Amino acid sequence: MSSDMEGITGSILLLCLIGFANANTSPSINTRVEEVCEDTPIGAYAFTIEATDAENDPLTYSLHEPNAQYFTVERSTGRVSVSRKLDREACDDCNILPLGVSVSDGPNFVDSELTIILKDANDNRPIFQRSSYDIEIPENTIVGTSLFRAVATDADTSNAGIVRYSIDEVTPNDGFSLFSIVPTTGEVRLNGRLNFTGLSTFYRLKINATDGGGKCHFTETTNYFSSVVFSFVTVVDVPDLDPIFIGIPYVGRVEENSPKGTSVFKVTAIDPDTGINDAMIYSIENSTVNGLFEISTNDGVITVSSNIDRELIGDTVSLTVKATESKQNIHGDSASTEANVQINIIDINDIKPEFYKCGLSCVKESHFTGEVVEHSLGSVSFNMTVRDLDKTSKTQLTLEGEDKDVFSVEPPFTISDSIVQLLVKQPQKLDFEIKQQMILQVIAIDDKNPTFHSTATVTINIKDANDNSPKFQQDTYKLEVAEHSPVGTILANITAEDPDTMDQGNITYKLLPESILLYFDVEPQTGTIYVKNTTLLDREVRSLYSATLQARDTDDKPGTTVLEITVTDINDRAPVINRDYYQEFVKEGGELELKIEATDADDSDTENSKIVFGIEPSTYSDNFTIDPNTGVLRNKGELDREALDPKLKGRIELNVTATDKGSPPLSTMVTVIIIVEDINDNTPQFKAPEYKFSVKEGELGAFVGFVQAEDLDQTAEFNRISFRIIDGSFGSFIIRTFAEEPGYRGNITVDPDIELDYESARNKFHLQVEATDLEQKMAVVWVDVDVLDVNDERPEFKPTAPVTVKENTTISEAVGHFTAQDKDGNHSLVYELESIKCRCNGSLTPCSWFILDPTGDVRVNPEQTIDYEQCDQVLIEAQVVDEYTEKGENNSVTTGQMVINIADINDNAPEFIFSDSVFVVVSESASKGTSVAAVTATDRDSGLNRQIDFKVTAVQFKDTNNQITDMKMLFDAVTTQQKDIYVGIIQTSETLDTSLKGKYLVTVTAKDTGDISTSTVLEIFAVDDSYKVELEFTRSQAFVEENLNDIIRALMTATKAAVEIAAIRSDTPEASRASGKTIIVAYFVYSNGTALTSNEVERMISDPQHSLVLIELGLADIGKAPVIEPETDPLRYILLGMVAGLVVVLAILTTSLMCTRRNYRRKLKAAKAMNSASMVTSDNQKSGPVVPGTNKYTMEGANPVLNLNIDTTMVLDMDEESSDVDKVSLDSLDDSQYMTMPENDRSMQMIQEEDEEYDNRLPAYIEPLGAALAQRGQKKGSDNAPMGFNNPAFNTTDL
């Protein structure tokens, strides 16, 4: 019966297998859109074609048009790699590539077209639209003005296509602050004020455009690209400065009455805007006296425009002159400036003396009236003033008229305003009974020019006197007496007559006034007049005495007569000159006429008072003559100031004598000072016809030589000389004027700001030097200046081309040579070593691989070995010295540099870079192409010699029992490069076994192009599915995916472990997924390779600090979330139902037949399960035996593999509400594992129980269900030995 049953069962299974074969469905392609970085290297992984087959048949992948040429696919895995360079910017729509793919499961073939979106990588640099941005801007451009916009475009997108602008440098450097650029737009703006005259006239801007950077395939490094463009900004001068006058203050002079058009003075103004240099328009804006002067609008020459009368306008006239630019300035105005000019008016003798009557003010008058008592002496006043308006004048006064002899005029000469009076000279003619009125003419004559004279009429009214007195026969008696006559000498006997006869003989006499009695007296009765005092009678003191001889009659009526007593002379007085000295001014070339006046107190009618004039011999006495009678002093010939001794300053002193003719003759001497005034009648004269000097180059402010000139005029007003260089200097020389005796010296020096250079085009100068006096009389001389060569030029290095030297070389010849030049003709160059630096690991350090000869040759140091791997470049800095330098530094300004590139030879094997990283692979999530580890290596060689290729050469697995098993090539290596480091990315080449516990030992070999290789072994810890944790969320799958980053971040914060998401799936039907539950399958792995169990994760996230955050994100439970089976067609469900039914029938039959035989075996198994459960411990699990047939322990501890919340008392018979997932989970117990994780040993262990050894025959399965499952897992044609696993804690016997 048993054999029949087994035959029936086999037939039924055979029919099921035939049904499955006939119902094979076509594979489906799940991938529709993939993103690939455009910089993905050729051969690098791009993506994997996701396809599924309902029967899990092996799939074959292939590519076809369009665009199949850009990719290759591994036929068995669907792993797609790049086969041709991708370029997103190659065309307008190259960012999206359609790609034809095909998938086949053998009988069925499916075509599809994928959409490949090329992700942008920053592989384009910004490009400026213009090669340069050159502009001209006025110097008055407003700060903040936009000058131009530099525009650059970048073909990349996102941040890589965003261009930011900056100004890297500005030449000259001090103009850096004058400009700014808007980083986002490239708009260049003026940031400071320009100045054509004070700052530079041009600037060069270096503008940089840099993109925002980006990365795609190579995520470690962000690439940035930039470009530069130059802009030349030329500053244009604008008229913004007012003109200025030069040579101020201005002082001129002109003679009064100068003809119209006479040049007086020249003013000069310049335009400080050197780039404009506008012409000036001159004008007179104001004058203290209007209309006297005018100015040339073009050259600023001031000339006389009308008659100048010093006596009316005064000694000076002040002008305000204005210089106006001929063109308008930037403000639309005509810029101008003003200066003051003082013009001194030189007086000439052009005014005649005039008479004035003065009261509160003086007015001209020609008629005057006075009165005098008859016969009286003294002065007659009539309010007359004489005045000459010339600055220096001398006026002579004389009388004319019928009665001119009666009076004398006082003063006879005057040099200033004087009051004029008449002195009674002949009082006897003042007789009222004879004449009651006298008319005189007073004449004022200009002493320098007699033609200038004025006449005034003076009427003198004579007043009557009471004369009822005795009458003398004469009204006046003139008496003479010799001076110093003895006392008692009788002068005369004078008697009066009185008509009255009774008075005759009775008349008494008396002399009046009382003062006369000191000198004379009269006998009262006789009328005899006699000398009373001999001493006081001095003619030189007083030559004429007027006395009244009074006669009184008996009635006491007086009668008088006038006694004019003349004291006659004796020669006792020397002539007297009326001045202490004479001083006369005369311009050279003019005529001198000076009257020397002298008086002799002796009688004028005698020889005693007659004076003869003469000149005492002296240095210049022969140049003058004097009239001996009149005393008029004149010059013989033309007066020349320059003929005089300059020390005299034009002063001539003569001693003039006045000698009388008395006996013995007496004389007097007076000094006559003649000032010969200088006039500008000489032109400056250079003391040499030409000058020749030499000066050494390079000396700032060096003295070149001097020129000498002299103006023979003797006053500084006319002989002062100023020098200037009017041509040939080219701004290299300056001249300064110094006074010396005699003349002036002009020192020529090099401009302190200019350095002459013999090596330049100008080493000879032909200067034209002008000497000018103050009235612009000038002389010109030529000055030749030769620039002498001085060894003052510093040597300069010529550029030295890079040199290449192979490492390990031993050549003795020169490998390079420094070359320098010196502009000086005579030089000797010696080369000196400054430094040798080797570039080692990117930084320069001192080294001594090379030596430098004094000749400039560079040689290999025989004592050193050149190693490219130690240093790849050598920088030699040398200094060159000119041994013949005379002035300045003898070395070059900058050092010469020689770059020696060390050429590599392949003499080094690749070297792995040590890493303490721990590599972990989650077996369940590691699909084909998953990167699980990485190695880095470098090769100390360069170029092709340093290129490294990685390859996995062996794979082993070391389990928790330290048993090492050789594996097939589960991994392969993909080589990439990051700068100078090569990276080998270790990827899975196929799906890993999720049940393995332990670590993979992967041998990776690095080989360079010279077949020199090095190997290393990587340890990759495997995290098996026993550490899988399923998290249940009450939110939709869309919400979970949208907030996945926040969920992962919260889980990592709670567990301090890396979270690996294996799957996200919905736990609700399709129609209600928008608001249903979602399951996240995850692993929690530490960097040291250990992982957390679900129990540990549950404990950690239960902390209130973290659980609230996760609950807000929708976390509901942790455990094995139910799996929703995908929908299939009804035929599949029918076939599966038939198979399930057959399996149940088979299990029941087998159980019934074997019940008695297996009873003992069941008890034995239960005992072994209890024993095993009691032996298993965990850090987070309580001890206690397991309940056979369940996945729960009898205590509260949780199974480390599953965390289903099943009560310990639940029965194994699944109720109606149990899901298929629970059944599947129970099925999986056929491969259950035990795990312990002690603190000191974190390696994972697996306990595997083998019932029987495999000896090339089917195992003798103890349980029928185990045998059926073993047959189900076996595929046709498989050579793999069948394996069975027993769960010691649960078996189907308990069913």
TrEMBL record:
Record field: transmembrane: 1133-1155
Bilayer topology annotation: Single-pass membrane protein
SMART domains, sorted: CA
Chain segments carrying region Disordered: 1271-1295
Domain of life: Eukaryota
Pfam families: Cadherin
Location relative to the cell: Membrane
Gene Ontology biological process terms from the UniProt entry: anatomical structure morphogenesis; homophilic cell adhesion via plasma membrane adhesion molecules
Keywords: Calcium, Glycoprotein, Membrane, Repeat, Signal, Transmembrane, Transmembrane helix
GO cellular component: plasma membrane
One Gene Ontology MF term: calcium ion binding
Domain Cadherin: 28-128, 129-245, 246-355, 363-472, 473-577, 584-686, 687-797, 797-912, 914-1033
Signal sequence annotation: 1-23
Protein name per the record: Cadherin domain-containing protein
Taxonomic source organism: Perca flavescens (American yellow perch)
